[in-house]
Write a structure and sequence with these properties.
Elements lengths: L2 E6 L3 H13 L1 H5 L3 E7 L3 E3 L4 H5 L9 E3 L8 E5 L2 E5 L4 E4 L3 E3 L2 E4 L3 E3 L7 H4 L6 H12 L4 E7 L8 H16 L5 E6 L9 H13 L3 E3 L4 E5 L4 E4 L4 E3 L2 E5 L2 E3 L1 H5 L24 E3 L12 H19 L12 E6 L5 E6 L12 H18 L4
Parallel strand pairs: 1-2, 1-9, 2-5, 9-19, 11-12, 11-17, 12-13
Antiparallel strand pairs: 3-4, 6-7, 7-8, 10-18, 14-15, 15-16, 20-21
């Protein structure tokens, strides 16, 4: 009887997982013993870290976009459909038109910015967490010669370093335009430091002071008045802006919320080592969809596939599951348009930012190109 592995989600985590399974189970698939199915709700695959470089007008949007069917291995059955319910008791996924039974399920449905989380936010803010948002922000920045840029952050959100990166890059961007003295940059964060990871906050704070980047902590956005161009905090203070760049709180995918598989934010309770959904033996979770206390980032999904894929293969072949996830994450930290730092960390080892250099910025640029090999399950 055919063992069916269904991967739900055509983003980084899902595409990597499906391709690695397809490559490594090639003989079993050829023999009709295993089927790997990838279900995606769009035929377009976007390298989301590229949004930052689109907003800075460093790259064209098309540079970070591929057709999903060009990335998926021939051993993987690719299906485009919108899944509306996951029935983990019956081992079946439901769309409006189809049912997809599975023996093993990998959920990689990501996280999604909620621009309706604060009144007025959708109408009054800009962002670089969506393709349209990054393009719109690029054009606004290109035409700006003076004024106030206010950046606000809510949690949880993916790419935790990105808000720091863009404010540091904006400083360099406006210096190169020769108008930095006319543009006020203000960065805010909802807790008592400028990043949730203390070593990262310690890395960035001296740059803020050196480069006259204003910051305010314990900044929790309550509302935005698009007409007056004012951000209002929970304590009633008003903060004027010409451009409001906002990173709203993220939620899990609608299918996770509607299937009641997640916590109050729609993230799936997941075993931190096996990456199985809690109280399930055949549902695995990778990437942003988990509720794990680690960064929601592409590298997280990459390292998690290195656990989920061998464990599923071992089960298919009647062997024990022995791979365990260590909580490993790696992240570049752009310091300007020309230099960067980098961190790696896991459950037991905190991050220690590397010395900032133009070489690390170059490595980041190289990885932006190598990503497509990663998505194909080659790297």
């Amino acid at each position: 009887m055919v063992k069916r592995i269904v991967v739900l989600g055509g983003g980084s985590g899902g595409t990597m997982t499906a391709n690695r399974l397809g490559r490594q189970l090639g003989q079993e698939i050829k023999n009709g013993e295993v089927e790997v199915v990838l279900i995606a709700n769009t035929d377009t695959h976007i390298y989301q870290p590229g949004y930052l470089f689109i907003a800075m007008n460093e790259k064209e949007p098309e540079h970070f976009i591929r057709k999903e069917n060009r990335l998926v291995h021939r051993n993987v059955k690719l299906v485009f459909d919108d899944i509306v319910k996951i029935d983990k008791d019956q081992n079946v996924l439901h769309s409006a038109k189809q049912k997809y039974p599975y023996d093993y399920l990998v959920v990689s449905t990501g996280s999604h910015p909620d621009f309706n989380s604060v009144p007025g936010l959708k109408e009054g803010s800009d962002n670089f967490y969506t393709l349209d948002g990054a393009i719109k922000l690029r054009d606004k920045l290109a035409n700006m010669t003076e004024g106030r840029i206010l950046l606000t952050v809510d949690v949880p959100h993916k790419c935790p370093a990105a808000p720091l990166e863009i404010i540091l890059m904006l400083d360099d961007y406006f210096r190169k335009k020769g108008v930095r003295d006319k543009v006020e940059l203000k960065y805010t964060y909802p807790i008592n430091r400028i990043h949730s990871l203390q070593p990262v906050a310690d890395w960035a704070q001296p740059q803020f002071e050196k480069r006259n980047i204003l910051s305010e902590t314990f900044f929790n956005l309550e509302a935005v008045d698009p007409e007056r161009k004012v951000a209002i905090t929970m304590d009633g203070e008003e903060h004027p802006f010409d451009i409001l760049i906002s990173i709203p709180a993220h939620t899990g995918a609608p299918v996770i919320i509607d299937s009641r598989l997640g916590d109050e934010d729609g993230f799936i309770p997941t075993d931190r080592y096996s990456l199985k959904m809690e109280e399930s033996d055949n549902v695995y979770v990778v990437g942003d969809a988990t509720n794990l206390p680690i960064s929601k980032a592409g590298s997280t999904a990459h390292y998690q596939t290195e656990v989920v894929v061998p464990n599923i293969i071992n089960r298919i072949k009647g062997r024990p599951e022995t791979a365990r996830y260590s909580g490993k994450v790696a992240c570049f930290l752009e310091n300007s348009l020309e230099d960067a730092s980098m961190i790696t960390f896991d459950y037991n080892n905190p991050p220690a930012p590397a010395t900032t250099s133009d070489l690390l910025h170059w490595f980041k640029s190289v990885y932006n190109e190598l990503y497509w090999l990663n998505a194909r399950g080659i790297l």
